[in-house]
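User: Can you predict the 3D structure for this chain?
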Amino acid sequence: MKKNFLICGAIFAALTLSGCQSVGNESLRKETESSVAQKIVQGKTTKSEVRAMFGSPTKTTFTDGGLEVWNYDFSNVSADAISYVPIVNLFGASASGKKKELVVMYDDKNIVRRYAMSEADVTQKTGLFNN
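Assistant: Here is the predicted structure, written as structure tokens:
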């Protein structure tokens, strides 16, 4: 009886720990293309205003012309049902969810020149039969 209790506890712990994963900038979690469009105005919103709304970027790059580009990313995935089946999940488990990306380009006066917000469905597969 004690052995069964320990096995059930171990399975419950494994399922609880492997259920959901979020990676990236949490400020994008509830944002949509339309909500970002209400917050960022091309030719008007400043770099400091964007930082106040979304925090520090995940990545900063520069164009060939020297313009600064900020990237924000956020992914939220949850394990699919097959991932919870013992033994079967070793051969083919998966997780699915959403990925959001916000890219902001600034002009030489640190004003938003252009931006793009995108949201896509993502799937992550693991196991012997998903490679």
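Strands lie at 20-24, 59-62, 68-79, 93-106, 112-126. The chain is about 25% helix and 40% strand.
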